[in-house]
């Protein structure tokens, strides 16, 4: 005799509303990330490289490596290697501070700015396609809820 499984019976039972919300966040993040990765591949960038370029575009005078690591959306345990690859491609430049030789300042190059400029509209289009159906009010509420959640974590 064949067993008929419904989608509901195949789903794992969730133990709490917090766990259900957590799992939905993970699933959603994975789906949204895949869409962004597709756009970034057109310029041969990873999402962490894109994140570094966006951080540096907002800090034209450059930032120390440690500050870039602190501002990253996702933590990269080997920021030095990530920056090495980006420097080899000409997207960033690094130099040691004259006052404190231990501090390495990182700046975005004109090539890095050019790559970001080419990605700005496609990235915004992807975001609109993925989340635009929620409307401004729901997006504001979602953003606020996620911000509140992060503030309680530390």
Q: Beta fraction of the residues?
A: 5-15%
- From the alpha carbons, calculate the radius of gyration and give it in angstroms: 20 Å
Whole-Å distance between the termini? 53 Å
CATH architecture: Orthogonal Bundle
Order of helices and strands: HHHEHHEEHH
| Shape, principal axes of CA atoms | globular
Number of strands: 3
Strand order of the largest sheet: 1-3-2
Whole-number total of structural domains: 1
Fold-level CATH name: Arc Repressor Mutant, subunit A
**CATH class category label:** Mainly Alpha
pLDDT < 50 runs, ≥5 residues: 5-10
Give the CATH superfamily.
Answer: Winged helix-like DNA-binding domain superfamily/Winged helix DNA-binding domain
For the sheet with most strands, the description reads: 3 strands, antiparallel
Percent helix range: 55-70%
Average pLDDT score: 88
Q: How many individual helices?
A: 7
Could you say which structural class the secondary elements and strand pairing correspond to?
mainly alpha
In short:
This protein is mainly alpha-helical and 154 residues long.
Structure description:
There is one protein chain. With about 150 residues, this protein is mainly alpha-helical. It has a single domain, classed as Winged helix-like DNA-binding domain superfamily/Winged helix DNA-binding domain (Arc Repressor Mutant, subunit A, Orthogonal Bundle). It contains 7 helices and 3 strands, in the order αααβααββαα. The chain has helices spanning about 5-10, 15-40, 45-55, 65-70, 80-90, 110-130, 135-154, and strands spanning about 65, 90-95, 105-110. The chain has a 3-stranded antiparallel beta sheet with strand order 1-3-2.
């Amino acid at each position: 005799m064949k067993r008929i499984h419904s989608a509901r019976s195949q789903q794992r039972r969730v133990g709490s509303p917090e766990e259900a919300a957590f799992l939905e966040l993970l699933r959603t993040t994975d789906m949204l990330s895949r869409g962004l990765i597709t756009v970034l591949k057109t310029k041969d960038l990873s999402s962490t490289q894109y994140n570094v370029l966006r951080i540096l575009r907002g800090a034209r005078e450059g930032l120390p490596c440690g500050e870039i690591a602190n501002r990253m959306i996702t933590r990269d345990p080997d920021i030095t290697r990530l920056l090495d690859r980006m420097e080899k491609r000409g997207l960033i430049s690094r130099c040691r501070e004259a006052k404190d030789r231990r501090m390495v300042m990182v700046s975005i190059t004109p090539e890095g700015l050019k790559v970001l400029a080419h990605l700005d509209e496609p990235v915004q289009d992807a975001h609109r396609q993925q989340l635009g159906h929620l409307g401004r009010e729901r997006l504001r509420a979602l953003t606020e809820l996620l911000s509140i959640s992060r503030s309680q974590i530390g």
